[in-house]
Amino acid sequence: MAPPATIRWFALVLALMLSLLISPSTAIYCDEDDCYDLLGVTQSANSSEIKKAYYKLSLKHHPDKNPDPESKKLFVKIATAYEILKDEATREQYDYAIAHPEEVFYNTARYYRAYYGYKTDPRAVLIGLLLVLSGFQYLNQWTRYNQAIDMVKKTPAYKNRLKALELERNGGAINKKKSSKQMDKKTEEDLSKELDLQITGAGKPSLWELLCVRFLLLPYTVSKLLLWCGHWFWRYKVKKAPYTWDDASYLTQRALRVRLDSWVNMDDVTKEDLLQRRLWEQSNLDAYFAEMRKESKRRR
To answer: Is pLDDT of 188 > 60?
Structure first.
């Protein structure tokens, strides 16, 4: 469950968004009226003038002395305007909102912070933001994965493998005692276990890939990275040891800017040839690219 401060922060954001759609930021103070006009004073009036105007109008429109319903509504508006203008801090905020009506979000945020005490803890905001982004990220991963699975299931290779597996399970003939739907479902489950569906860029969603989990594991990740960098420096810079297959593969991928899935699907002969060229050295990489360009021109 999200912390209370996070819930309050999201409530504030929602209120701010609604206020942007409904009215300008000055309307949150005295509705559609001008606070100064309600008290009958100018914007340059001092505190004593504002106080004097309020007492005069409040006596005139007080419900005990004026039973008119409209007068009662006006009394409430006058009291609200006085509450805003009597305090120097809130009056300064209101004057700023009048002078800068285009800064709607900023003005509205200041108002809610002053009157409702939304003093947000940055840590709560960060946690809430990570949880929301992680939720959207997880849903997006599942959507992409399911779409990729559906695309693979429509390919002839998958359908042919499905039929072959069904025949194999039933000794070359379909068992009529079982419904075709049950058989297809069970066969598809077996096929999903046996068939390696290599879906580029749409792997099965994992909680370990979510932003919130990665953020929690950030100290461990940074420590592991520092340890790896230290090991790399000691092994290849200090001891001058030859690169292992995995490390040479990593350097080659980075030099050629090849995706990991493309490198994995590459045949071993091509990989071996690329590793032998030592493409992580700039001179060898330039020579390789020149050779590829020459080969491309020759084929044309």
So the answer is: no
